[in-house]
Each structure stands twice: as structure tokens, then as C-alpha cells.
Automatic annotation (TrEMBL):
UniProt key word DNA-binding: yes
Modified residues annotated as 4-aspartylphosphate in this record: 66
PROSITE patterns, per database record: HTH_LUXR_1, HTH_LUXR_2, RESPONSE_REGULATORY
Short name of one Pfam family: Response_reg
Protein name: Transcriptional activator protein ExaE
PANTHER family with a match to the protein in the record: TWO-COMPONENT RESPONSE REGULATOR (PTHR43214)
Gene name as annotated: exaE
Response regulatory domain mapped to chain residues: 16-133
Species: Methylobacterium trifolii
InterPro entries referenced in this protein's UniProt entry, alphabetically: CheY-like_superfamily, NreC/VraR/RcsB-like_REC, Sig_transdc_resp-reg_C-effctor, Sig_transdc_resp-reg_receiver, Tscrpt_reg_LuxR_C, WalR-like, WH-like_DNA-bd_sf
Length: 224
């Protein structure tokens, strides 16, 4: 077995944590929270590429990641999927400024075990970290209620018809990204982006590309 193959099979470091966010203040703040919670070792990354590389190298048992990274839209969803594909046992806490239940639901579908809003208090973050360390799911009460209503069909939310991948592509489209740029960001083919675009227009009843993007922006601030 080669050294590379041996590394790929290394078990997760259960007590270690990786925090991925593009704001230095958030990184420092969450490091302090993790240390306060008794996490043994905290790794940091400022974008999804370095986040995945850091995870691949150290295999921390816990990952905390934002969903939005500057001009890359909801690329945190891709990071969550890639990490879970590489190491299914990894416990992931997603956090974001977005409180739309559709986005929360898609993060959970992508593989996150918990979701916390960025404006939550310190106590909430500590509770979430403890839950994830123990392998339990965690959602703030209001988010849990909204997601439950969404899944039960109790809320009219056009974006609920979209898959996690389509939601991510729509987020990038709303930021003015070209098909080629989106394909490169998500590591998918150009044809995949085109097909997803056609699927979204059909699901959302958009008669044009401009109307599709308008729906994205109007449904929860996709370009924020």
C-alpha cells in the first residue's frame, strides 16, 4: 500500500475540529469557543479549497463551516458533500447568516448534522458544539420549526423544489457568475450547469434567465 493510500484510510481524529470561514474575526472567535468547549486541536481554513485540503490532511472528526464564501455563493454545501463522501463519520456543523428553512434543509441534506445562525449567542454555539461532538443533531428551535413546516408543506417556498446542487448554482447565478465559472467553482461539467439551469426554470416557472435570477434574489436574499 502506498503512503498516499495509507493516508486516505487514516481514521478521523475524533476530538479535533476544523473551522472554515473567510472572515478572520469569525475564525478567531470560533477557535476560542472551541477551546472553551474543550476541543483538543483546532485547524483553520479561509476558503473551501484550503478547507478540503486541510480536512484531507488531518481528518478532524468535527468540521464547522460557513455556507457562503465571498463570490462563491453557497459553496459550503459542496464542501459538506465532499467531506462526507470522503469520511462519512465526520460530524459537521454548518452556520450561516441565512435563516431561510430551504437553505437550512439543504445543508442538512448535504450532510450537516447541525445548523446555527451566525448571530446566535455564545451559549447556543457551545450547545451546538457539544451536541455535534456527541454525534447528535442540533437546530435552534425556530429553525427546527420552520424546517418541519417546510417539509410538511406548510409554507409556500418555491426554492424548496430545488435540490442542494440547484440551489447552489442558483446562488452563483444571482451573483452574476457565468456558466463556465460556476462549473469551475463546483468542479462539475459545463453541461451539468446548463441542465441544472433548465431544470430550475422549469421547476420555478421562470420564462427567462432574468426571471430566474429575480426569483433567486426575492426568495431570501440569495445574492447576500
Amino acid at each position: 500500500m502506498t503512503a498516499a493510500r495509507a493516508t486516505d484510510r487514516r481514521p478521523p481524529a475524533a476530538d479535533d475540529l476544523l473551522i472554515v470561514d473567510d472572515h478572520p474575526i469569525v475564525l478567531r472567535g470560533f477557535r476560542r469557543l472551541a477551546e472553551e468547549a474543550g476541543v483538543a486541536l483546532v485547524h483553520e481554513a479561509a476558503d473551501i479549497v484550503s478547507g478540503y485540503r486541510t480536512f484531507h490532511r488531518y481528518r478532524p472528526g468535527i468540521v464547522v463551516t460557513d455556507l457562503n464564501f465571498r463570490d462563491d455563493g453557497l459553496s459550503g454545501l459542496s464542501l459538506i458533500r465532499r467531506i462526507r463522501a470522503l469520511e462519512p463519520a465526520t460530524r459537521i456543523l454548518a452556520f450561516s447568516m441565512h435563516d431561510d428553512p430551504v437553505i437550512v434543509s439543504r445543508a442538512l441534506e448535504s450532510g450537516a448534522l447541525a445548523f446555527v445562525l451566525k448571530d446566535a449567542g455564545t451559549a447556543t454555539f457551545l450547545e451546538a458544539i457539544e451536541a455535534v461532538r456527541a454525534g447528535r443533531g442540533y437546530l435552534q428551535h425556530r429553525l427546527a420549526t420552520d424546517v418541519a413546516m417546510l417539509n410538511a408543506g406548510g409554507r409556500h417556498a418555491p426554492l424548496a423544489r430545488l435540490s442542494a446542487r440547484e440551489l447552489q448554482i442558483l446562488s452563483l447565478l444571482s451573483r452574476g457568475r457565468s456558466y463556465a465559472a460556476i462549473a469551475d467553482t463546483l468542479s462539475v461539467s459545463y453541461r451539468t450547469v446548463i441542465n441544472a439551469n433548465s431544470s430550475m426554470r422549469r421547476k420555478l416557472g421562470a420564462g427567462s434567465q432574468a426571471e430566474l435570477i429575480q426569483i433567486a434574489v426575492s426568495q431570501g436574499g440569495m445574492s447576500a
